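dumping these here so i dont lose them again. two proteins, back to back, each one seq then structure tokens. dont judge the mess
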Amino acid sequence: MFLPATFSQYLSFIWRTQYIIYIPRVPDFCVLVSYIFVKWAGITDPMSGAKGGAIIGLLYGAGMNLFMYSSMEPNYGNMLTDIIINSVMGAIAGAAIAFIIGKMK
């Protein structure tokens, strides 16, 4: 397989081959949580940030899994595990974001 040496060659390779660039969801999730905490909820302490992040992570995980398993036979064990992992990751991200927002105010 062709491995591009520079970033411009990489972008050219992506454009020519029509590959989808995989971008992890972590930056998008953190921007979403930060916006919700600052503009809508006013969350500035880590405990309430963890609760809010867990709820957002739970909703995100449930939505993602329900969409993913909508066209196949659902595996409820994997679905539940992924929803729990998304909730824990959301709680950790929410606590960290709220801690930083609290320090900035």
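---- next one ----
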Amino acid sequence: MNFEKLTDNEHKILKKIWAFGSDGVTYADIKFWIGMEESTLKTYLKRMTDKGIIVREGSRARYNYKAVLTEEHYIKAVTEAFIKANFNNNAKDLVSYLLKEQLITLEKL
């Protein structure tokens, strides 16, 4: 599953699927909430299915999409990749940076 390389639109779609929970969400609901052109949305859903990020269930008349990748797992993996790429794989350096730039305070930690 290659999820660290999600496009902004894939992430937007996945966030909507997560919001609907473990029951999944219909294509019509995704289309309503995302507001993409039909062919574009279908392309993204196919790519995400091919990547193993989501699964498609049901019949053609009423596909239901469910997330395989959990939000928690995605956030953990993306955060680890960010720390590795930008802070020499050291979370302490990230926290030091956030404190130095006053993006967080010790009280909020």
